[in-house]
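User: Please predict the structure of the protein below. I'd like the answer in structure-token form so I can feed it into my own downstream comparison script.

Assistant: Understood. Taking the following sequence of 223 residues as input:
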Amino acid sequence: MADKRSVLKDSPHSGRPQNQFHHLSQQLVPRLIRSTCRLRQHARSAPTGCMPSTTPGLADLPSGAELRDRERRARQSGTALVASDLQGTWLLDQVWPKGSDRPASFNAALLRGLGARLEIRLEEGDLTLRNAVRLGALELSFRGPGQLMGSRPLLRFRFESLELSLAGHSLLRRALAVPAEQRMPFFALIARAPEGWLAARGRGGGLALWRLEPGSESPPPQP
């Protein structure tokens, strides 16, 4: 019998064009989100969302208005954040559309239901990012290097590989094309609080708030 871990493993010499696979991966996450929401709504009869907005261990997360005020100060004076301040596993808690103080609660609930998380590690002086979502034992993740730039600073990154795994066993791994310099994604950092939350605005203008996963390594910044 063939080893299940290698049955679906993609080969670097596969004839399928990389951009087709990347397009397929972009379609997969929204489908996972819709499926998870439907399952949770049927199970809990929750018409307003598939997961309550709870944040164990964090009593007072900032509002969108508070984050925008912090953002104005960060633009003027910077944040003084360094790479070691960002280390840890950050669980997505809330998102705000561009120009709005009203959170996109439904979208955030869907992503929380999928366990959306951003893992940031400092390895031999270099930042490595891993962005992942999970549906049961199935996990889709993206990995690549990051770099802090400027006084604010900006966290620029690119994802070089995509992996689909089942119960910890890799089913498929694929290299991703490097985006053009002017399209390189980034997070404009706003704040990393000692209480255990991180806020940043993405290249597309949306605002995101993550909370630190209990037990993950991330030394809090000095006040």
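That's the full token string. Residues 17-52+62-212 form a domain with the Lipocalin fold (CATH 2.40.128).
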